[in-house]
Design brief:
By secondary structure, the protein is of the alpha/beta class. The protein has 9 helices and 11 strands. The protein is globular.
Amino acid sequence: MKFTTSAIALISAAGALSASLPAPNPASKNILLTNDDGWAATNIRATYYKLKDAGYNVYMSAPVSQRSGFGGKFDVPDSPTLETDGGFSYPAAGAPSWGHEESDDHIWYFNGTPASCVSFGLTYLPQFLNKSIDFDLVVSGPNEGDNLGDAAFTGSGTIGASYNAVYQGVPAIAFSGNNFNNSFFKDDLNLTDNMAPATIYGTKIVEFVNEIFKSQGRNENLLPNGVGLNVNFPNVGYLNESCTDPTWVQTKISGRDAISPVLSYNQTTNSFTFGELPFNPLTLCLNGDCSLPSESYVVGETVCAASVSVYSVDYDANEKLQHQVFKALKPLF
């Protein structure tokens, strides 16, 4: 099977790249950056600086501490001050429940889930900065760990942040890496180390963002309304020294190798642990292009490739399935 190694046809609202149009000025584009690993995580800081160095107006609104696995859950602070320390004790308990770096008022934290951080960023960040900001794109991540398949789509805070932006009519992309180390940026951030996974992911995100803005051309919408993207990177750099520049591959969220979390019981220790298993419904193709490989297969089984999946927030079943189920329930109607 041959895989297309370009996301251009997918990310263009027009469906094709207009090579004759000049690339837009990054300084004219406002990007809201968030994640679920927290504002002090190395990955998000690397991406912030890479996007900023590329000329974009970047504003961060990310959880004050680790909020992985919260999906689209919406939380708000219980008080105007932190009752516990933020991630890596940055900041400490007693600090405001929302605030910014003293040296950079574009880098904000919020004591909430990724979904509520997006709402804070889109609605209230401009007010606190006393600016009028129309965000062109929400970038979520890169997550510290992959988010592959249907189960990740519903459970991931990184993806949850992206579809909460799409709900509000703002184009969004969720990015996830394969570096599972939850590290503090003051310990690990090194933007000059071209083998550091966080640096590579940030560089590739700039490449992707550049292309999606270029592909917009004269279209009003960056992406079709109600549509977002889920992007997963493989191991790179020190995690896989043969992979420093992954190719882009068009994928589906569901399909071959898709898995779901399950419980695993250990009788000896009388305890439960986390497990993963493939289930048949995850391999079905009910919507989209059924010829595309799954993101789980591309990231897990191919060499140095990043998956690019297109999702929609229209969660209804397709018309054929709707009719099939409603026909069976006809006596109720």
